[in-house]
Amino acid sequence: MKEQYLKKLRRSRRKMRSKSEFVHFERPRLVVYRSLKHIYGQIVDDNKGEVLVSASSVDNSIQPEMKSTKSKIDKSNQVGKILAERAKENKIKKIVFDRNGFLYHGRVKALADGAREGGLEF
């Protein structure tokens, strides 16, 4: 029980530390959330306080593409590419990446790489 508490505490510290870096609001930010099975990405405009674009591995519109992938890292990469396509449709090119307290490796890095491949600039 104590290990789980410490793990949650460390993530919340990383999350707050990374949130303090986003004091500039000229760019929207790409927020990543990762659960054990799925990954979610949202592009948020902090000036208006609204979500502009979102994509996830649970999204029904991209389920056929998710069936062809085998690993969770491949799914994360696909979600990043789809998120970038949807951002292009809304004329969003430059963003700030918010890893939301998660370490930048594995699925979080794969989502960021997929978004870069799709044309977003960090």
Describe this structure in words.
It is a single chain. Helix 3 (72-89) packs parallel to helix 4. By secondary structure, this protein is an alpha+beta fold. It has a four-stranded mixed beta sheet. The chain has a single domain (2-117), classed as Nucleotidyltransferase, domain 5 (2-Layer Sandwich). It contains four helices and four strands. The protein is 44% helix and 19% strand. The model has no long low-confidence stretch (mean pLDDT 90). It is globular. The protein has helices at residues 2-20, 63-68, 72-89, 107-117, and strands spanning 29-34, 39-45, 50-56, 96-98.
Q: How would the blueprint of this fold be written?
A:
Elements lengths: L1 H19 L8 E6 L4 E7 L4 E7 L6 H6 L3 H18 L6 E3 L8 H11 L5
Parallel strand pairs: 1-4
Antiparallel strand pairs: 1-2, 2-3
Helix pairs in contact: 3-4
Summarize the structure.
The protein has 122 residues and is an alpha+beta fold. 44% of the residues lie in helices and 19% in strands.
Structural descriptors:
4 helices, Nucleotidyltransferase, domain 5, single chain, 4-stranded mixed beta sheet, 44% helix, 122 residues, 4 strands
First-residue to last-residue Cα separation: 38 Å
Q: What is the CATH domain class? A: Alpha Beta
Q: CATH fold name, please?
A: Nucleotidyltransferase, domain 5
Mean pLDDT score: 90
Q: How many helices does DSSP assign?
A: 4
Level of helix content? 40-55%
Shape: globular
Given as residue ranges, the uncertain stretches (5+ residues, pLDDT < 50) are none
Spatial strand order of the main sheet? 3-2-1-4
Beta content comes to: 15-25%
What profile does the largest beta sheet have? 4 strands, mixed
- The radius of gyration computed from the alpha-carbon positions, rounded to a whole number of angstroms, is 15 Å
Q: What is the H/E string? A: HEEEHHEH
Structural class: alpha+beta
How many separate domains make up the residues? 1
Q: What is the count of β-strands?
A: 4
**CATH architectural category:** 2-Layer Sandwich
